[in-house]
Specification:
The complex is a heterotrimer of chains A (about 325), B (about 300) and C (about 325). Chain B contains twelve helices and no strands. Chain B is mostly helical and about 300 residues long. Chain B has a domain of about 200 residues: MetI-like fold, CATH 1.10.3720.10. Chain C has twelve helices and twelve strands. An eight-stranded mixed beta sheet of chain C has the order 6-7-8-3-9-10-12-11, sandwiched between helices. In chain C, β4 and β5 form a beta hairpin. In chain C, about 45% of the residues are buried. The chains are: A alpha/beta (about 325), B mainly alpha (about 300), C alpha/beta (about 325). The interface between A and C is large, with 45 and 43 residues.
């Protein structure tokens, strides 16, 4: 039985211009001790989907799903009290901006012991030793003295380590990391990613890594889910995805990377991600797809083997490229 | 090719629509706005809707109670005061003076406050310190007391009262503008304008000032209502609008002795002040919700 | 002989920092000794992590701030000798900047047309219709349409705003454009579009770029020369090809090793740097990289190294000078990159 099972998750937001579908029919199942990456650009709905899982969306959001189960328990039908028992304890999440994720008014030690106290009860001070242990686990030197430090006294990398320490304090079964290293330098990024993978292996956690950086995914993930404008367009093992992408968007995204440029210019994807008011008919990627056919413009595609496309890219089924002018974003 | 003028008109419509969406989310703000519009219309068309002249005295009808009470007359809807003047007409004409007071005070204090705040925030250094210390001094004295001092120097009268009150409101605008200026000064677009060669005047008034407007508008609206209150208070003390001007505070002052024997002479002006100030405050709250980007949901 | 557009010699920038009521103020050495030449049509990439001084360098080159010491000449004019207003005004037009944050670099209360015309209003005597014409031409050049002229910045996406920022930077026909992390805040697919635009514009207008970035894969694509900085000091300066195929300085090697790549071998050995970048107020003595360097010896702790030419790179490193690094390089590092 998978640890996390999501079927047909959809999130709608009520806005000044009507209802906006941020996430459209996402299926995701994660087994224990698996590392899954959710990749997408801005507007893809990757953060929204995980926030919906955690129940952290504002009141303007309507979350619906056929199934949303964690460790056998149904998350949809839970009330806030039951959900709070799971969130933070069995499912944890770390966010992008480490400097603002920690409360600037309280010391590191206070915030760490607070988490432990909330979930395990008892007096806060009795958890001081455990807090030191956690800080050592995430590689913070001189952990005892750091307990009395405030977040603004630490660097970005250190703050992110403290966040990670807080989130693994209760030994969660699933850790969701939402762009954990985007705000950090490259060398620190490498350290943090290594730490996450190490903790995942030592603590038998499942890790969901949300990012827009394909290179980070290639280095870390076992399985990859690709999102575009709220749609889940592809889901495959990392090795397969990078060597043989089957959705035109995935292929275009990989080709747009500077690493894969041939010649002076990069292989940019023409156009922009559709916003609220310019959603195309049919397949959502059709205005920018270089393999687009008439069917793509009229009908919604069905999911075939994890790929949401009328003509998934394969060696024998690849249709000829249709001519598409270089449309600048409008 | 679309005509750019047509495009910009529909753009403006869209902007107003978005503004109205957030503003109308608060029902009380809309109610306040409707009432305010009513008061403004009342002030504009005072000569037309008012049943009597505000200064006309009907000697034989002095101290007549409101129409729905015993002894009341239908021609004097809210009764008459000690000199036989129709209360309703006086209140209608008084709305002009109150709105005028609010406008003059806000315009004066806003313009001086913004100017000083911009200069203080932009230049910094000793000029900033000087301006802020002067403002601190003004704020240290209770507003009404300070206004009384100024009126005592300048002489009683509605105009002097408005100037005096405006001076006491200036520090809050200075502080708001200065705070916004300090924040905006470090933004990239200001640096970009500097790189294009913009001089300090252009930077202050064209680049930075438009970005400080939101909190200023809200503060301005709230100051409007407080100005009406303070003008009424000065009028009540006899230092503001002088009789026979039907300013609402002055109305209460001149009928002070009749508080127990003819309570309608002081109650209705009081209610008028209350409702006007309440309406403006509700509109101010609605404006803040509509203009504050952090509260915007989508 | 062609003169370089920018000639920088030993640029230094210090900021006094208050450290208490009665104590004397400390010196924050944001930039300590940067030198380079930049020619028209070329791109110099400045690479480093946060706190390395690349933004300070950008501000010096854009003449927003003045260097504490060192010489900087732009298009043949030495900045230290510039006194009168018209000369400095002319200089200002020659160097323009594109900022990192597409959301903050455009005035939210001004329409795009006004933003683009502002430099023309300030610097030229053109009338309204001429200015409008120029602005529309520039918008066309960066791929925007006429109907965008009357819109406000918040109606555009990040990529479009960067295009507007680029258009604004180019409207005074500068010779040098300083690009401070211009694509870091953009999505990959939009990043590619904007980078392509920059490359095309450079070819068309013979612009010199100073491209500041922490993203090495973008730098590898767009740069001609690369300058690697650490804590305000330059550590390596070479052509792009040489830097990426044969990095010499230990920090450069670590940086390249830490950069994730799509075409990767999962279990490759990475060079792990211990610790974090120290504070610029209190830098380590000698070579500032010594606390984190695996090759540090006594010299590294006492004397700061100087940039010297090794093969085709200019590097500041004692281990390299004393040839302590040569033997390790061949066996270990080749498998790490």
């Amino acid at each position: 039985m998978p640890l996390l099972e999501i079927v047909n998750l959809t999130v709608d937001f009520a806005t000044a211009n009507g209802s906006f579908r941020a996430v459209d029919s996402i299926d995701l199942s994660i087994d224990e001790r698996e590392i899954v990456a959710i990749v997408g650009e801005s507007g893809s709905g990757k953060s929204v989907a995980m926030l919906a899982l955690m129940g952290l969306l504002p009141w303007t959001a309507t979350v619906s799903a056929d199934c949303m189960r964690f460790d056998g328990q149904d998350l949809l039908g839970m009330n806030d009290k039951q959900r709070r028992k799971i969130i933070g304890k069995d499912i944890s999440m770390i966010f992008q901006e480490p400097m603002t994720s920690l409360n600037p008014c309280f010391t590191i030690g206070y915030q760490l012991t607070e988490v432990l106290c909330q979930h395990f009860g008892g007096r806060r001070r009795s958890y001081n030793n455990r807090a030191v242990e956690l800080l050592q686990q995430v590689g913070i030197p001189a952990a005892e003295t750091r307990l009395n430090a405030y977040p603004h006294q630490l660097s970005g990398g250190m703050c992110q380590r403290v966040m990670i320490a807080m989130m693994i304090a209760c030994q969660p079964k699933l850790l969701i990391a939402d762009e954990p290293t985007t705000a950090l330098d490259v060398t620190i990024q490498a350290q943090i990613l290594e730490l996450l993978v190490e903790l995942q292996q030592n603590n038998n956690m499942a890790l969901v890594l949300i990012t827009h950086d394909m290179a980070v995914v290639a280095e870390t993930a076992e399985r990859v889910v690709v999102l575009y404008a709220g749609w889940q367009v592809e889901q495959r093992s990392a090795l397969d995805l990078f060597s043989n992408p089957r959705h035109p968007y995935t292929e275009a995204l990989l080709n747009a990377l500077p690493e894969r440029a041939q010649g002076k210019l990069l292989n940019a994807i023409p156009g922009v991600v559709p916003g609220q008011l310019d959603r195309p008919k049919g397949c959502i990627f059709n205005p920018r797809c270089c393999y687009v056919q008439d069917l793509c413009r009229q009908q919604l595609p069905e999911r075939q083997e994890g790929v949401l496309c009328h003509y998934p890219l394969e060696l024998d089924l690849k249709p000829s490229r249709s001519s598409q002018d270089m449309v600048t974003d409008s | 090719m679309k005509n750019p003028i047509v495009v910009s008109k529909s753009l403006r419509v869209q902007q107003w629509r978005e503004f109205w969406f957030y503003f109308s989310a608060s029902k009380t703000a809309v109610a306040g706005l409707i009432f305010l519009i009513g008061v403004v219309l009342m002030a504009l068309f005072a000569d037309v809707i008012s049943p009597h002249e505000p200064a006309e005295q009907y000697r034989q009808f002095a101290k007549v109670p409101p129409a729905w009470k015993d002894g009341g007359q239908i021609q004097f809807l809210l009764g008459t005061d000690y000199a036989g003047r129709d209360m309703w007409s006086r209140i209608i004409h008084g709305s002009r003076l109150s709105l005028l007071a609010g406008c003059v005070v806000v315009v004066l204090s806003l313009s001086i406050g913004v100017l000083l705040g911009l200069v203080a925030g932009y230049r910094g250094g000793w000029l900033d310190s000087l301006i802020m210390r002067v403002m601190d001094t003004i704020m240290a004295v209770p507003g009404l007391l300070m206004a009384l001092v100024f009126v005592a120097i300048l002489g009683p009268g509605l105009l002097n009262a408005m100037v005096a009150i405006a001076i006491t409101y200036t520090p809050s605008f200075v502080r708001l503008t200065r705070a916004s200026t300090l924040t905006e000064l470090n933004r990239d677009y200001v640096t970009a304008s500097k790189m294009a060669g913009a001089r300090p005047m252009r930077l202050m008034f064209i680049s930075i000032l438009p970005n400080c407007m939101a909190p200023l508008i809200v503060q301005g609206t709230l100051s409007f209502s407080t100005a009406i209150l303070d003008t009424a208070a000065l009028g009540f003390l006899g230092m503001g609008a002088q009789a026979p001007m039907p300013e609402w505070g002055t109305l209460i002052a001149e009928n002070r002795d009749l508080m127990l024997s003819a309570p309608w002479t002081v109650t209705f002006p009081g209610i008028a002040i209350l409702l006007a100030v309440l309406a403006i405050n509700l509109v101010g709250d609605g404006l803040r919700d509509a203009l504050d980007p952090k509260l915007k949901r989508s | 002989m062609i003169q370089p557009i920018i000639k920088a010699r030993d640029l230094q920038k210090h900021y006094p920092v208050k450290s208490g009521f009665l104590k004397p103020s400390q010196n924050l050495r944001a930039l300590a000794g940067v030198s380079f030449d930049l020619y028209a049509g070329q791109t110099l990439a400045v690479v480093g992590e946060s706190g390395c001084g690349k933004s300070t360098l950008a501000r010096l080159l854009a003449m927003i701030e003045e260097p504490t010491s060192g010489r900087l000449s732009i298009d043949g004019v030495d900045l230290t000798e510039v006194n009168n207003k018209s000369l400095s005004k002319g200089l200002r037009q020659k160097v323009q900047m594109v900022f990192q944050d597409p959301f903050g670099s455009l005035n939210p209360r001004h329409k795009i047309g006004d933003i683009l015309q502002e430099p023309l209003v300030i610097n030229t005597g053109l009338n309204a219709s001429e200015r409008r014409q120029k602005a529309l031409e520039m918008m066309n050049l960066v791929g925007l349409r006429e109907e965008h002229f009357q819109r406000y910045p918040h109606m555009f996406s990040g990529g479009q705003r960067q295009r507007i920022a680029i258009a604004r930077a180019l409207i005074l026909k500068p010779k040098v454009v300083v690009l401070d992390e211009p694509v870091s805040a953009l999505d990959v697919s939009i990043q590619a579009q904007v980078i392509n635009l920059l490359i095309e514009l450079q070819q068309e207008l013979s612009l010199a770029y100073v491209f500041i970035s922490h993203d090495l894969s973008v730098v590898r694509h767009i740069a001609d020369e690369v300058l690697v900085m650490y804590l305000g000091r330059p550590v390596e300066h070479s052509s792009k090809e040489v830097l990426f195929s044969n990095p010499q300085h230990p920090y450069t090697q670590a940086l390249l090793s830490a950069t994730p790549q799509v075409a990767t071998q999962r279990d490759r050995q990475r060079i792990k740097l211990k610790g974090e970048m120290p504070s610029p107020i209190d830098p380590p003595s000698g070579c500032v990289f010594n606390p984190r360097c695996q090759y540090a010896n006594q010299d590294c702790l006492t004397t700061p190294p100087v940039m010297e030419l090794y093969n085709e790179s200019r590097v500041a490193c004692w281990a390299l000078k004393q040839r302590r690094i040569g033997e390790l390089k061949n066996s270990q590092t080749k498998s790490m990159l």
